[in-house]
Design a protein that fits this description.
This protein has about 130 residues and is mainly alpha-helical. The chain contains 6 helices and no strands. It starts with a helix and ends with a helix.
């Protein structure tokens, strides 16, 4: 697989995760919707990493760690948001945390987070060359 193929791979599956995120929200599966949003941001960051470093990205799900490895200037607000989205990954995967996210992930909360995830995704997408 060429470098461009790898970049496109991460981008393509990131965009598919956004579609899944929206679909899960429509079906009122809010916890899994937020988890898919995390996956979309993770994969777009990995696409940017691959483009910048010309190598496979690190095997991590931590959005902040991925962002901090990039030459992009992330504001503290953006890093705080990525840290918040990290919780959707942990809380959706691990049973100890699932109950708390089910209480938090109301329809109103989830729709707000979806908007923010989509905005962040769009900004990150614009960082690709």
């Amino acid at each position: 697989m060429t470098l461009n193929d790898q970049i496109q791979y991460w981008l393509t599956i990131a965009e598919k995760d956004l579609i899944v995120m929206r679909s899960l929200c429509e079906q009122k599966h809010f916890v899994w919707c937020l988890f898919a949003g995390h996956l979309a941001l993770e994969k777009i960051l990995k696409s940017i990493y691959t483009e910048e470093y010309k190598e496979s990205p690190p095997r991590t799900h931590d959005l902040v760690k991925l962002a901090q490895k990039l030459s992009i200037n992330f504001s503290s607000a953006k890093l705080d948001f990525l840290d918040e989205v990290n919780d959707f990954n942990i809380e959706a995967r691990y049973p100890d945390y699932k109950l708390s996210i089910y209480k938090t992930a109301t329809e109103e909360y989830t729709k707000l987070k979806i908007e923010q995830i989509e905005e962040e995704f769009k900004w990150l997408r614009s960082q690709l060359k």
